[in-house]
Design goal:
Layout (H helix, E strand, L loop, with lengths): L2 H29 L4 E3 L1 H25 L8 H21 L7 E3 L17 H16 L3 H29 L3
Antiparallel strand pairs: 1-2
Helix pairs in contact: 2-5, 3-4, 4-5
Amino acid sequence: MPIYMWLLLIFLVFQRLAELVVARRNENWMKSRGGKERGAEHYKLFVIVHAMFFVSILVEVIVRDVSNLELSYTLFFFFLVTQILRIWCIQSLGRFWNTKIIVSPRFTPVTKGIYKYIQHPNYVVVGIELFVIPLLFGAIFTAILFPILHILLLTIRIPAEEKALNEMNPE
């Protein structure tokens, strides 16, 4: 695997681990203020899919032998754009950003930043990432499979999130 792929993979793993630390801190903060978790039964599916995403890339890279694959600057540009949007999502939600559904009647849904323009931007960003990142590695099967799995999970996640938000903050 070319060095740029290793660097990108290491960056992504550390980024995701750092995000889990932030999410845990935010979860504890929300729960200390009366926040309740909703949709816990499907959360494990997200963990499995996102862990398998990295495994799938590695397996596909090994099977396909991408040692001569050159960096696609177009794909890398789209990757950088998704990272900017990802940061904007996290920054917009602040302490409310989480990988779980945590709601509290003490707080209203965030409608600032990117959330002023789109209701679930992080899910859009993740969907794009699940397509672009594998293509950077030459992992075409992964680039097809995981966005589909993401969409399927969102058919469960978004309704659960909307229901939780509506129950905690009825209008």
